[in-house]
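Re: iron/sulfur cluster structure - here you go.
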Amino acid sequence: MQAENSSTECGEPPSGRSFQALKKFTSAGRGFWHDVSEADWNDWRWQLKHRITTVGQLEKLMPTLTPAELAGARLANHKLALGITPYFFNLIDPADENCPIRRQMIPRIEETTTAAWEMSDPCGEDSHSPVPGLVHRYPDRVLFLVTDRCASYCRYCTRSRLVSNATGYDFHPEFDKQIAYIAAHPEIRDVLLSGGDPLLLSDEKLENLLSRLRAIPHIEFLRLGTRIPVFLPQRITPELCAVLKQFHPLFISIHTNHPRELTTEVRAALSRLADAGIPLGNQSVLLKHVNDDADVMKAHVQKLLMCRVKPYYLYQCDLIAGSAHLRASVARGLEIMEKLRGHTTGYAVPQYVIDAPGGGGKVPVNPEYVLCRNAGRVLIRNFEGKIFEYPEAADGTPAGLPPKEIVESELV
Ligand code: SF4
C-alpha cells in the first residue's frame, strides 16, 4: 500500500502512473456494458436507469470488494445512498483498492464512525435558510437547492444530510417560495443553483426555473454547480446547451477531483458547454489517496485547462460526519499549493479555501508569501524561496530605497 501523503521515490504520483500518463485523455469505455446499443449508452436517461444502486449489483460487478467496502455498502442506504452511473463505474480500477475513483464512490465502513468534531451540516446551511431549499449566508448571493438527487453519490458529500434522502431529511424545495424570497430581497444579485444536481432537471423544468430567475430585475448573475458533466457527460446535449445559452451571464462550476475523471467524453461535453459561451470553473475537494499529491493535482489542473475549465476552488474537506478516512490535512493542502503557484500557469492555480465550520463561509488559506510588513517595507518570498523587499509608503509612493532582492545575511 502507498505510504500516506507521499510520492514514490522515483517521483511517480501515488496512483503509480507517470505524470504524462495522468494527463492523457482516454475514454471510459464500455466495460461490462459492451453489448448495450450505442443509442442506449449515449442516452442519459438510460445511464440513470441503469445506475449501480444495490450491494448485489456491486458484488457482481466488482468481486474484489474489500470487507470494509462490503460492510460500508450494506449500510450506505442509511446514510448516503449508493449510486454510480455505468459510465462512471467504468473508471474504477477493480484491482486497485486505493483507486482514486473507487475511494470517492464505493462506501466504506469508516463512514459509520463519527468523530466528536464532525457534523451533519458542517457549513451551517440549515441555520441560514430563510425558506426551504434556499441558503442566504453571504450578503449579495444565495444558494438555491433544486433537488436532493445526483447522478452518482460522492462519499464525502457535504450535503449528505439531505442528498439522496437516505437519512429521512425530508427535503422539499418550494420553488415559488424560493423565488418570492429572492424577488423580495433586492440585495441578492447572484443565484447559485445546486442540490443535488440541477442538471438532473428536464430541459423544460430548467428553462422554466431559469426564466423565472432571469425575470427578477436585480438578478445579475446565474450560476450552476454540477457534477453531471463528469458523472453523466451524455446529459450535456445540444438541446440542453441551447436552453442554457439563453440566460447569460450564466457560469457553471463543475466538480472533479482527479485527472482520470477527465475523459474524452467529459472533454467533449465541456466543449459543448464552452461553445455555448458558458464560462467554466472547477471545484475540487482535497481527498486523502485521491488527489493529496502535488503531481496528481498539477496534472489535474493542467488537464482542466485543456478542457477549457479554470480551476476555481480547492476545498479543504468539510468536517462531514464519517469522512475522516478521506480527509487530508491542511498542511498537506498548503504544501500542494506551494508546489503549484509559480510552478505552473497562474490560470491553473485554484484558490485553496476552508469553509469555516458551522457557517463562517469560505476562508482563503495560502502558503506564507508575505514574510513581514511594516510602515516602511514589505518582505515577500517568491516560489523559488527568494526574498524581496517592496518599499511601502502610506500613499503608495515608495519612499525609501528602490526594490531589491534580499540575501539571507541581510535578514538578521
Ligand atoms: S455531486 Fe455534489 S451534491 Fe451530489 S453527492 Fe457529489 S458532492 Fe454531493
